[in-house]
Design a protein that fits this description.
alpha/beta, TIM Barrel, 8-stranded parallel β-barrel, two-stranded antiparallel ribbon, 15 helices, 34% helix, 17% strand, globular
Length: 386
């Protein structure tokens, strides 16, 4: 499986979404009759997509609207929503900044301390509007923030960092014991992010209710360029799915994996499910929604790092409502709208009646899948040629 890259050193080939294709089987299914719901710890959602915990994507109103449409939106407790009483004015300022000053402005904006009262306030605002309150923070803040969020009615708690393991070594500060945290927390906990088989198994043993899979593939993330780390999402998802299935056979406990990042159109999402994902997390596609607080701009979660930013602000534009992005009708030609329609149509064409069956469809290595026969689209920069 591995190839020699030099004397005494071998590496295996890994794959991303643009390098594979899904192969139709011997049956097809009516797309209107396929089942795409997603479960986490007995909580069922009809949309198997999570909106990423990014400040340009999710605020209270977006979280409520996503809940109304049957999905999950994760609110970032380390972001502007908990640093400012009026975060909208700050988001407007970020959107107006020129590209040369954007990162410096974001770094400055995030130096304002987090106000604990705003954590409780934001969660309460989501619950008051009948939304599902899913919140996220870094490991260092998890113990304190989780108590505040749960007391205000949070439904799911996410601990997220660039790379998460059960063995974090540090002398400078106290590390979070994920085993104790998951056991003590009274609501479902999702951990992330990871990309390897071994780490996936180890994180599942903590008692987590779900795992985020992916390091550095996000549209606004620069981790792969700054740190040189990451695994393409096809291979990362397939490896994590193998670990999930192994853990299930050994324990009888099924822990869903959520492919996080690297998907900007319906076809990518379909491929993620074929690779074994139980749900996906996306940011840039939702940043294009009219309801997104970023005003057509999107930035990575580590853009604000004061010494080593690992993200950037990008312009994605505003193309339609959240409902149009999820359910259509699509008004653009690039596959970034009606994501649920794309998933259902793909499943029907592949003969998969539900997401579990989607895990078993044939996948081929197909580097030409994005370019074969698309010369006019590429030349005219339309459709798949954008």
């Amino acid at each position: 499986m591995a190839e020699w890259i030099g004397i005494g050193r071998r590496s295996r080939r890994c794959y991303g979404f643009d390098e594979i294709a899904l192969v139709p089987g011997s049956q097809t299914v009516n797309p209107n009759e396929v089942e795409i719901s997603f479960e986490i710890d007995a909580k069922k959602f009809k949309v198997p997509i999570l909106a990423a915990a990014m400040d340009g994507v999710v605020d209270v109103n977006f979280a409520v609207e996503m809940s109304n449409l049957g999905g999950i939106a994760v609110l970032n407790l380390d972001g502007v929503q908990t640093r400012y009483e009026n975060p909208d004015s700050v988001l407007k300022e970020i959107a107006k900044a020129n590209p040369q000053k954007a990162t410096q402005l974001i770094q400055s904006v995030y130096t304002t301390p987090i106000k604990e009262k705003l954590i409780s306030k934001r969660v309460a605002e989501i619950k008051k509007k009948k939304g599902t309150a899913v919140v996220s923070c870094i490991p260092a803040n998890a113990e304190k923030f989780s108590k505040l969020a749960i007391a205000s009615g949070a439904d799911i708690f996410v601990i997220q960092s660039t790379v998460t393991t059960t063995k974090h070594i540090a002398k400078e500060y106290k590390t979070l014991d994920l085993y104790k945290f998951c056991k003590a927390t009274k609501i479902p906990v999702i951990l992330g992010n990871c990309v390897t088989y071994e780490t996936t198994v180890e994180l599942m043993e903590t008692g987590t209710s779900g795992l985020l899979i992916g390091v550095g593939p996000g549209a606004a993330c620069t981790t792969r360029g700054v740190l040189g780390i990451g695994v393409p999402q096809v291979t990362a998802t397939v490896d994590a799915a193998g670990a999930r299935d192994f853990y299930y056979k050994r324990t009888g406990r099924y822990i869903p994996i959520i492919t996080d990042g690297g998907m900007n159109r319906g076809g990518d999402i379909c491929k993620a499910f074929a690779c074994g994902a139980d749900a996906v997390m996306i940011g840039s596609s939702f940043a294009r929604a009219k309801e997104a607080p970023g005003r057509g701009f999107h930035w990575g979660m580590a853009t604000s790092h004061v010494n080593l930013p690992r993200g950037t602000r990008i312009h994605v534009g505003t193309t339609g409502s959240l409902k149009e992005i999820l359910f259509g009708p699509a008004r653009v030609d690039d596959g970034s709208q009606n994501l649920m329609g794309a998933l259902k149509t793909s499943m029907g064409s592949l003969g998969a009646a539900n997401l579990k069956e989607m895990h078993d469809v044939e996948i081929i290595i197909a580097p030409s899948i994005q370019t074969e026969g698309k010369i006019f689209q590429v030349g005219q920069r339309v459709g798949m040629g954008k």
